């Protein structure tokens, strides 16, 4: 004889389902971003350009301590840019500032209207103990289109299957994410980005703790996105990998040391400037103010192939755009 559940039982079941949905949403916030942050400035009232991201005196930091100082320039639509620098130089901070996780301490980051962003943080920021399968993780890429309670369509399921095939994880659909190797997890995260189908793709250290074959396969996917005129920004540490695969590079040492074509940016003198700036940094450095009369208006224009170098911290009076040295 069938038993009918009373209102309390139905409420309990519904509450449990909502809890699962909320937990999934929390995981989504960690591994994907498609929001239009309130910290962004709109370009609706400005002339259209080929720049999809524009930084104007952007300063970002934590607890009143700046980590990225006075960044000016723009990222061109369809460009492929590496962001390099020592640990603590502001690379991940810049990524979080672009997607709106961090509110600017000064200046602004402007995103062209209508651009969708996919953000892949470092693996260390993902809770792998969350009880999710590979297919659940990859399906989160559908979140921008389907929302919290939307049903997946046949096309959605085909998109997920194609993404898993593209990253070499066909047959892994029901595997728990806590059973994956570092390389397999990164492939699954790239599959999620494939499904998300974004215009701007931000990848924070995607090559860490993965094997050489996986690195090669992920590079191939990045070049595929670049070929599709998507804008891709990648935080990386391997300078030889960057020289071989990335046309443009931003070298950070809490402030922009050099920004332009990769071979120019990664010249030995610029790497030396970045190292000296890092060595001069003091963790208790106070808020830095630009010196009056010093212009930070160095727009990054790929068409003119300008290469922007910022002088060594020891060469600028009062350290101009950098923090005060210890």
Topology:
Blueprint: H1 7-31, E1 51-62, E2 65-76, E3 80-84, H2 91-99, E4 106-111, E5 117-120, H3 134-139, H4 143-146, H5 154-166, H6 182-196, E6 200-204, H7 212-227, E7 231-235, H8 239-245, E8 248-252, E9 256-261, H9 262-265, H10 268-280, E10 308-309
Parallel strand pairs: 3-7, 3-8, 5-6, 6-7
Antiparallel strand pairs: 1-2, 1-4, 8-9, 9-10
Helix pairs in contact: 5-6, 6-7
Outline the structure in words:
With 326 residues, the chain is an alpha/beta fold. It is 34% helix and 19% strand. It has helices spanning 7-31, 91-99, 134-139, 143-146, 154-166, 182-196, 212-227, 239-245, 262-265, 268-280; strands spanning 51-62, 65-76, 80-84, 106-111, 117-120, 200-204, 231-235, 248-252, 256-261, 308-309. It has a 7-stranded mixed sheet, with helices on both faces. α6 packs parallel to α7 (212-227). The termini are far apart.
Find the count of extended strands (DSSP E, 2+ residues): 10
Number of helices: 10
Q: Tell me the Rg in angstroms.
A: 22 Å
* Main beta sheet strand tally, sense and closure: 7 strands, mixed
Class inferred from helices and paired strands: alpha/beta
Termini gap: 79 Å
Strand order of the largest sheet: 5-6-7-3-8-9-10
Anisotropy-based shape: globular
Mean pLDDT: 77
Q: Which residue ranges are poorly predicted, with pLDDT under 50 across at least 5 consecutive positions?
A: 1-48, 289-326
| SSE series | HEEEHEEHHHHEHEHEEHHE
**Beta-strand percent range:** 15-25%
Helix content: 25-40%
Properties at a glance:
single chain, 326 residues, alpha/beta, 7-stranded mixed beta sheet, 3-stranded antiparallel beta sheet, 10 helices, 34% helix, disordered N terminus, disordered C terminus
